[in-house]
Specification:
Elements: H1 8-34, H2 38-60, H3 66-74, H4 83-98
Helix pairs in contact: 1-2, 1-4, 2-3
Length: 113
Amino acid sequence: MAKPKLTRNRIILAFAIAIITDAIQISMTPAIFTGILAIPGEIADFVIDCVVMVAMTLLLGFHWMFLPSMLVELTPGLDLLPTWTGCVAYVVWRRKKEQPPRQIKTVVDNSLK
């Protein structure tokens, strides 16, 4: 799968999705632990993780770090950590290092000649 060009809008959207997802999953955790919505909550949690993983892959390109993040989110208790936000931060950092440095165009002022 080809890596899409890393743009500011893609990065902002990826971070927004990750932060919102982590907030939703953290708020769902007490209901899952108390047993009130244990089975439907876990199913919803899994579906959310699958959707987020696909969205991140489309926005940032596939990265191996998405797989462990999804597995950590499926582990009870560990899903209280903001793993999607951390994962997006790591992937964006790695993608920026992989991109060639931007060429800065120098403008020569003809009036100085």
